[in-house]
Amino acid sequence: MRNVDLTIHRGEIVTLIGPNGAGKSTTAKMALHILKPDEGEIRHLKGLRIGYVPQKINIDRTMPLSVERLMTLTGPLPKADIVRALDAVGITHLLKAEITNLSGGEFQRALMARALARKPDIMVLDEPVQGVDFSGEAALYELIAKLRDDTGCGVLLISHDLHLVMAATDRVICLNGHVCCSGTPRDVTASPEYLRLFGSRAVGPLAVYEHHHDHTHLPDGRVMHADGTVTDHCHAEDGHHHDGEHHHHHEEGKPHV
């Protein structure tokens, strides 16, 4: 990876896309300090809490392991926090279920709940829809957007998908050993670099995301609202409206809309 400059703010979903071997997971692991860059620097806000769902997890899904136990493999958690996290992803009823009996989508939700349970400021999700069918992918992307809206956390999302993911992100960074292009989904899908990199895969019905903000994310992670007040979050419990309306535009046969 060369010349990658990546900033993630609270309340923002940033998606890394690119072909296999482009450096998406490597970039995320450097941001997490799992890998050390040869040059440059990684800076986190002091006390930053990060929730991580890796692309591959070293768990034998045939072993006897309940969802409740899965939640505590990385450290103890109060039962109330476990239930709260499972409720946030819609699988409270699976608390005692064995992971071997979970569908692909249920297992991914359990992993998201495990990351969410420790109340992260940023969640890093590496291919969170793998092993899930098309309708399940759409539901998981909607869930990710909802978790962002409900918690105000930032999200770094890594995906090989070029279509559904566009409906669940604020900003896209296209990687191929370096940053090929970046910007809003609308801007990236219109970029010549994007079209050259993905060819025919880039042409087709896209779901382009429009998220109407009534606030601005400040460099220190706080949020300035339309009335000039500054808070730590952008969601409704602060007394400010966060317009999370998602408009999905589909247009056949064109790389952008």
UniProtKB/TrEMBL annotation:
Domain ABC transporter positions: 1-201
Question: Which residue ranges does the record annotate as region Disordered?
Answer: 232-257
Q: Which UniProt keywords apply?
A: ATP-binding, Cell membrane, Ion transport, Membrane, Nucleotide-binding, Translocase, Transport, Zinc, Zinc transport
* Protein name as catalogued: ABC transporter family protein
Q: What is its main location?
A: membrane
Which InterPro entries does the UniProt entry name for this protein? AAA+_ATPase, ABC_transporter-like_ATP-bd, ABC_transporter-like_CS, Metal_Ion_Import_ABC, P-loop_NTPase
GO CC terms for this protein?
plasma membrane
Q: Which PANTHER family match?
A: METAL TRANSPORT SYSTEM ATP-BINDING PROTEIN TM_0124-RELATED, ZINC IMPORT ATP-BINDING PROTEIN ZNUC
- Tell me the protein family, please: Belongs to the ABC transporter superfamily.
SUPFAM superfamilies hit by this protein: P-loop containing nucleoside triphosphate hydrolases (SSF52540)
Taxonomy, superkingdom = Bacteria
Q: Which organism is it from?
A: Ochrobactrum quorumnocens
Q: Which Gene3D superfamilies match?
A: P-loop containing nucleotide triphosphate hydrolases
Molecular function as annotated in GO: ATP binding; ATP hydrolysis activity
Q: Where in the cell is it found?
A: Cell inner membrane
Cell membrane recorded as keyword: yes
Tell me, what is an example of a GO biological process annotation in this record? zinc ion transport
